[in-house]
């Protein structure tokens, strides 16, 4: 198999994740001022994204900080995951599935504790690509350069042979700083065209420097 590689983000790329307004609905239901939920939960959201808190502890903190009973807590978390998981970007997923065996495939995602289990059950990303690197499992989020290094290391590929695709410009820029090729996801058509061009170009061959 060629060492040419494609690494993709999940949310906003492989998943279609529009805002659902669930947070504001809960603030209205609980008669809280706008912004209160994120203000009270900011450190918990951060901890969940880098894996320093368990899913059970997230649920406990949600209940304590927002004053929710057990039923409300379950409904709140269901709304959180409904927006987080969105719906599958079927056309892009089908295209990537067709690349299996033609290039190395990976995922690099800023994530939240519990994401792997849910995305595996719903979307089977573990069957789509060879390696999935989640921020909550490595303790590092994009655009930290170490996240891109971890993704390349997981596939044992050189960054210059990798095309990274993300819907956030700062992450695309960071991937380029890390030595990768990168593409800002805006729609499927342009993304598929960019992937095809990357594969047509093939892997870069290291230059041999003659000894003096």
From TrEMBL:
<dbReference type="InterPro" id="IPR023214">
    <property type="entry name" value="HAD_sf"/>
</dbReference>
<dbReference type="Pfam" id="PF00702">
    <property type="entry name" value="Hydrolase"/>
</dbReference>
<dbReference type="InterPro" id="IPR023198">
    <property type="entry name" value="PGP-like_dom2"/>
</dbReference>
<dbReference type="InterPro" id="IPR006439">
    <property type="entry name" value="HAD-SF_hydro_IA"/>
</dbReference>
<dbReference type="InterPro" id="IPR036412">
    <property type="entry name" value="HAD-like_sf"/>
</dbReference>
<protein>
    <recommendedName>
        <fullName>HAD family phosphatase</fullName>
    </recommendedName>
</protein>
